[in-house]
């Protein structure tokens, strides 16, 4: 008998202010639209987290909140157990998200006009943060052989040599789904270290390594001094609306500068509900993560098989991690605009590859984190969208 999973539950998120669903309010009225965009999950949160949030509400006072021993113990225990990263309060900076941390770190450690390296196709806010803070985008596009993505070490070294100040690294990589190996990360880190380039390492998808193990860059030899590690409970536990992330900085001088910038930006507390949820997430949900990853693997397999059988013109890039599927649609021969229109017309809006910069044209990104029943319906809609003559 088919075992049902707690992740099979469908939740109607319309009228909850969801960024993903509000963006398509014009399409979702009839209940037959499935947005496959923004990277949060259509899957229910873990029971211990729900209980912690209810208890926090029932407590009745939601005053100013700070990092305390309970929070710190839960976080440090989690990072050590799952990622081998030993941290203390002296390494921790809390922000209201990793995206806000991009700007804080750029302002703290670089100057206007400085060169910042990105490796597209990559998470759009990397570009936004560099532009908004008047730094200069230096692109080192990923290499793609038609099947797999790699980093271009020669290109990286050139840019480092030319005076770049910081590399924004996405590890695991959104949108291409790579979980960089220890060797790849060590090579990247060694190049940056040689030229004094700081690495802002966005590890928000760190618990979502599905086929191999994620390596925290800061655990590799020689890396602690140049790496800023960005993590959050938001992706893993589907808590993006609680606005809390944990940034780890081991170099004392860099820590002081970022901490000072945080003060200049007026940020000094953590969210009351974010703290409560994090303590439960970090201390009571290890088993839930494993169940989630199993479910996501099943969703990816469904996509790979269904697309291979029914949509010969689409090629899935196998995701080693994240819950985002990167699909090559070039064989359809459509413009990016037409491609997007087709998906929207069938009421399965997706993220266009172009939003991730160089190398994104002809691709789409599909969020697969949803109950399998919804995913099946979405795949049928995608089939209609791409098989139109
Ligand atoms: C690579 C990456 N970094 C950061 C974020 C968002 O971070 P936050 O919600 O903490 O600002 C996302 C969300 O999709 C992401 O994929």
Quick overview of this protein structure:
By secondary structure, this protein is α/β, with parallel strands linked by helices.
Number of strands: 13
State the helicity in percent bands: 40-55%
CATH superfamily of the largest domain: Type I PLP-dependent aspartate aminotransferase-like (Major domain)
Domain module tally: 2
Gyration radius, rounded: 21 Å
* N/C terminus separation: 40 Å
State the CATH topology of the largest domain. Answer: Aspartate Aminotransferase, domain 2
Beta-strand content bin: 5-15%
Provide the succession of SSEs. Answer: HHHHEHEHEEEHEHEEHEHHHEEHEEH
Q: Which sheet architecture does the biggest sheet show?
A: 7 strands, mixed
Number of helical segments?
Answer: 14
Mean pLDDT: 96
Listed once per kind, the bound small molecules are: pyridoxal-5'-phosphate
Main sheet: strand order: 1-9-8-7-6-2-3
Plain-language structure description:
With 389 residues, the chain is an alpha/beta fold. It folds into two domains: 6-45 and 286-387, Aspartate Aminotransferase, domain 1, CATH 3.90.1150.10; 50-284, Type I PLP-dependent aspartate aminotransferase-like (Major domain) (Aspartate Aminotransferase, domain 2). It has helices at residues 19-22, 25-28, 47-59, 69-83, 98-109, 124-132, 153-161, 182-194, 234-237, 252-264, 272-284, 286-310, 336-345, 372-387; strands spanning 92-95, 115-118, 136-139, 143-144, 149-150, 166-170, 198-202, 227-232, 245-249, 315-317, 324-328, 351-352, 363-367. The protein has a seven-stranded mixed sheet with strand order 1-9-8-7-6-2-3, sandwiched between helices. The longest helix has 25 residues, at 286-310. It is globular. Bound molecules: pyridoxal-5'-phosphate. Pyridoxal-5'-phosphate (PLP) binds next to helix 5.
């Amino acid at each position: 008998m088919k075992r049902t999973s707690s992740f099979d539950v469908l939740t109607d998120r319309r009228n909850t202010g969801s960024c993903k669903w509000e963006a398509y309010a014009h399409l979702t009225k009839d209940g037959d639209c499935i947005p496959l965009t923004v990277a949060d999950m259509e899957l229910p949160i873990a029971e211990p987290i729900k209980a912690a949030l209810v208890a926090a509400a029932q407590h009745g006072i939601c005053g100013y909140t700070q990092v305390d021993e309970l929070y710190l113990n839960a976080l440090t225990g989690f990072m050590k157990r799952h990622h081998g990263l030993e941290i203390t309060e002296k390494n921790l900076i809390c922000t209201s998200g990793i995206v806000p941390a991009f700007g804080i770190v750029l302002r703290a450690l670089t100057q206007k006009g400085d060169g910042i390296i990105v490796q597209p196709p990559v998470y759009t806010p990397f570009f936004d943060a560099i532009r908004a803070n008047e730094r200069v985008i230096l692109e080192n596009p990923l290499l793609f052989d038609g099947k797999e993505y790699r980093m271009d070490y020669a290109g990286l070294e050139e840019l480092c040599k030319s005076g770049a100040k910081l590399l924004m690294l996405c590890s695991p990589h959104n949108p291409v789904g790579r979980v960089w190996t220890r060797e790849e990360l060590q090579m990247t880190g060694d190049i940056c270290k040689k030229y004094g380039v700081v690495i802002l390492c966005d590890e928000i998808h760190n618990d979502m390594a599905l086929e191999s193990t994620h390596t925290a860059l800061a655990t590799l030899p020689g890396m602690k001094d140049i790496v800023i590690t960005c993590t959050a409970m938001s992706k893993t536990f589907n808590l993006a609306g609680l606005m809390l992330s944990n940034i780890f900085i081991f170099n004392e001088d860099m820590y002081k500068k970022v901490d000072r910038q945080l003060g200049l930006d007026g940020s000094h507390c953590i969210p009351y509900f974010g703290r409560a949820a994090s303590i439960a997430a970090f201390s009571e949900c290890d088993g839930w993560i494993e169940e989630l990853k199993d479910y996501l693997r099943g969703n990816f397999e469904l996509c790979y098989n269904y697309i291979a059988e029914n949509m010969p013109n689409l090629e899935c890039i196998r995701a080693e991690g994240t819950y985002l599927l990167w699909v090559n649609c070039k064989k359809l021969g459509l413009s990016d605009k037409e491609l997007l229109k087709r998906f929207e017309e069938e009421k399965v809006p997706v993220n266009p590859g172009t939003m991730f910069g160089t190398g994104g044209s002809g691709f789409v990104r599909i969020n697969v984190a949803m109950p399998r029943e919804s995913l099946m319906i979405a795949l049928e809609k995608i089939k209609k969208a791409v098989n139109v003559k």
